[in-house]
Specification:
The chain contains 15 helices and 15 strands. The chain is of the alpha/beta class and 406 residues long. The chain has two domains: 214 residues, Glycogen Phosphorylase B (Rossmann fold); 150 residues, Rossmann fold. The strands form three sheets. Strands 3-2-1-6-7-8-9 form a seven-stranded parallel sheet, sandwiched between helices. Strands 12-11-10-13-14-15 form a six-stranded parallel sheet, with helices on both faces. A two-stranded antiparallel sheet has the order 4-5.
Amino acid sequence: MLGREHPIRVLYSFPNKLGGPRICYTAWQQVNGLAAAGAEVTVFTGDLLRPLPRDVEVHTTLRHGKVRIPYKLIGNARALALHDYLVARRLPDFLGNVDLVHAWPSGALRTLRAAAALQIPTVLERPNAHTRFAIEVVKKECERLGITMPAGHEHAENPEKVRIEEAEFRIADRLLCPSDFVARTFRDEGYPEEKLARHQYGYDQKAYFPNPEPRDPARGLTMLFVGGCAPRKGLHYALEAWLKSPARSRGKFMIAGAFIPGYAEKLAAMLSDPSVEVLGHRNDVPALMRESDILILPSIEEGSALVTSEARGSGCVLLVSEAAGAICTHMVNALVHRVGDVDTLTRQIAQLASDRSLLERLRSASLSSLIQLTWAAAGAKLLEAYRETIAMHGRNTPHFAVPTTA
C-alpha cells in the first residue's frame, strides 16, 4: 500500500479526443486536476486537442505527428476498439512504473484484461448511469412522448455497446461514480458497495463566476436551461412546470441547446409561449448564467451534469431532479425534486418567484461553498479513490462479485 508521501502513478486511458467537448472536456479537466493534486499521470488518448501540463506524459493512439486516423473514417466503435488494443499492447511496458489504470467506457475491455493479468489495479469511469438502465429509461420516456432517439445517439438502443460496457463493468476493480444517483443505478443492478467508488466532477472558476452587481428584486424571475434538448434532460417537464407557475407572467425562461429531431415539434405549443426564449446552441453560456436567477435541470437520467456546478459558480440557484447528479442539498443551497414530479417543480418555481429572500439565501449558501466544486477539489477526491482502490488491491481482496446477468 502506498503512503501519502508517494505520488500515485496513473496510466489514464481515454479513447476519444481529449480536450474536445462534453466527456472529452471532462476527461481533460480531470487530468489537469490529477496533476494539480500531485499525481504522476501518463495519458493514452485517441487525440489531444488542448495542451496539458508539461509533467503529464502524453501518447496519442490515433495520431502520429501530423498523421491522424479520422474517427468518422473507420467508425467510432472501431476507433475506440483500436485505441483499446494499442493501450493493452503497451501496458506491459509500464509494469512497475504505474500504480493504477484509469480507463473510460467503450474503449477499455482489452486494457482492463491486460491490467488484471499484470495485477495492476483498475478503475473505470462512469460518466453516466448504468448503461442498460440509461438506455431503457430514455426509451420509455421517448415512447411516452411519441418520439424516437436518432440512430447512433449515445442513448439510442445499442445492444453491442451494452454488451461491451457490461463486460468492462465486470472486469474493472472499481467503478468511478460521480454522483449518488449513478451509484444507485449500479446497486439496483446488484453491484456490491465495495466495487463503487464515489468521486466528483468540477467547474472552471476562471470561466464561471457570479455577477458582482446586486440583482434587482423587482424584476421577474429568469430561469435558464442549458444542455442537449432531449427527453433525457426533462426539458418537457421544465416547460410544463414553468407555464403552470405564476412566474411566467413577469419572468422569462431561456433555453440554450440544440434539439434532437422531433422533440421541438412535440413541444411547439409550449415553446411558443411569449415567456419562453429558445436560444439554440450558445457559446456564451457563462454570461447567460450570470444574468439568470435559476438553472433548471429536471433530468430523468444523468451522470453528474457539469452544467450544475458551472451554474452554481455563476451565481444561479439550482432547481434540479434527484437524477441530475448535482452537488447540492435541498433547501440549503438548492431545490431538488423527484424525477417527473411536475407539481413539486411548479411549486418550487412559484416559491422562488414570490420569495426573493429564499432565493437569495439559497444563492448565498451556494456561493459560500464553491471551493468544494473546483476541478482541483475533484482531482484531490479522485486521488483518494485511487489510494483506496490500491489499498484494497494490496490486501489481496478477491475480485469483486458482480451480477451474472451484467
